[in-house]
Design brief:
Length: 199
């Protein structure tokens, strides 16, 4: 029978589930992932990208009106846009690998401190079986199920359960961990987590 269990501290990797949480590093890592996932789309044309002559419209003095420059001037209708958004904007933020691991470990430690980590000995491909297994924790909350890459194709039925989401453990991110109420790890996922992020 497939069941969920609360792991004991000695079964969890202390370097990931037992660190002193660094909230500043955790915050910067979540900001990094948010920024690095941005794809700028909005784009406005500046005066040098607009079509038209660059000839000065009227002479500088003696015309009896204000001074006028090129027809592409941002102050004129049909002209370029000053300080508008550009599609080549770069929002990328960098962070070294040690800080990334510390940020992830801080999120996992916070979740473990709340008693919201669960392990599952075996994942059944049948949705009905998994519905009974996850009934207790999905009754009043949501669950993020971490699996290994080899397991990800065989348990897609879990996505049919309300309040559950499956992800490969090597893709774990603090924002995702903190978004869901419970984190559930398969045995293979726990082993992969330790080898991948503590290497």
């Amino acid at each position: 029978m497939t069941s969920l269990s609360i792991p004991t501290p000695d079964t969890l990797d202390a370097s990931l589930f037992g660190v002193v949480p660094h909230l500043d590093v955790l915050s910067r890592l979540m900001l990094l992932q948010s920024h690095n996932g941005r794809f700028p789309i909005a784009h406005t044309k500046s005066r040098n990208e607009r079509r038209g002559s660059t000839r000065k419209l009227t002479k500088q003095k003696g015309a009896g009106s204000s001074r006028k420059g090129s027809n592409r001037s941002p102050s004129r209708k049909g002209g370029g846009v000053a300080f508008g958004p550009k599609s080549n904007a770069n929002f990328q933020i960098s962070m070294n690998a040690a800080e990334r691991r510390l940020g992830l470990a801080s999120a996992l430690t916070l979740k473990a401190g709340e008693g919201k980590i669960r392990t599952i000995d075996k994942v059944d491909p049948k949705t009905s079986v998994m519905a009974k297994t996850f009934a207790d924790i999905t009754k009043d909350g949501t669950a993020l199920v971490f699996v290994s890459a080899a397991e990800s194709k065989s348990i897609l039925g879990l996505n049919n359960l309300h309040g559950t989401h499956i992800d490969v453990v090597t893709h774990a991110s603090p924002a995702e961990i903190l978004k869901y109420d419970f984190c559930v790890f398969t045995k293979d996922a726990l082993a992969t987590l330790s080898s991948h992020f503590t290497a």
